[in-house]
Amino acid sequence: MSDVGFVIAGYGVILGGLAAYAALLLLRLARERQHRPPGDDGA
Amino acid sequence: MKTRILGVAALLAVIAAALFGLYGVPADLNQGDAQRIMYPHVASAWLAYLSFGVTALAGIGWLIRRDLRFDAVAVASAEIGVLFTALAIWGGMMWARPVWGVFWQWEDPRLTTTALLLALYVGYLLLRRLSDDPARRATRAAVVGLVAAVDIPIVHFSVIWWRGLHQPPTFLSPDKILHPSAPLPFVLALVGMLGAFTLAWTWLLIRRYQLARAELAREDAVRGGLVRRASAAAARPGVAARPAAAARPGLPTSDDGGTPQPKAPAEATQ
Lengths: 43, 270
Hints:
The structure holds two protein chains of two kinds. Chain A is mainly alpha-helical. Chain A has one helix and no strands. In chain A, about 20% of the residues are buried. Chain B is about 70% helix and about 0% strand.
């Protein structure tokens, strides 16, 4: 694999990993807030 | 709303920094294009240090103040730290193969201690799943987080203390980054990526903290339901109620900084 291939793999996984984690985090947060108990302001 | 704005700003900053690192900076004279991986690699490593440092400080906060908000910060930061450590290792491997000729070398102290750091904090997250008691879980996690944090300076100084393939540290050596002989585009790319990733880290930490607080609130609600059921069972003649989890001493309540105990339905409607 050429240097450019390693650069693409490096940036792809790092940026893709960050984006995937952020999306998963928002999904988990939305799911958790659906089950918010009464009286909790979620702060 | 502010968190949303921060998220958009972080996204734009990361995209801009990545484009600059990929297209705005010329290829390195010695390392060629592979050097471009250094920007996200170094930024990820910096945020791994920061995350685990915050986890240790939040653990101390919990041990002193017994406020579960510190524990929420600790778990949020640890999880994000595991992510950035894994990303730093991946970036390092993608850089090492074309430059060193190998993806990994176990004899290298920086690589090995970083792998240990990842294992320690994966263990920290697993340990948290062993207990349903928030106070006990927070105490155990705080102690493990503090012990694991000892590895942070070891990772950092490993390249000074022992010989290996890895070059000397980039952090805490600003003369290396900002040396007058360093070409401006390289410095801008590195500083830009550090700033963009730190913005993204801040946004992730806020969101993960909110998730940790929401999880605690749900745990409190479940525990409150158990207490109500136990009380109802105790009120019935001939039924011996088992002590519920929330009746045990040491569990946080809204008075000692924990998440507020949910009201009973009858109370809530008043």
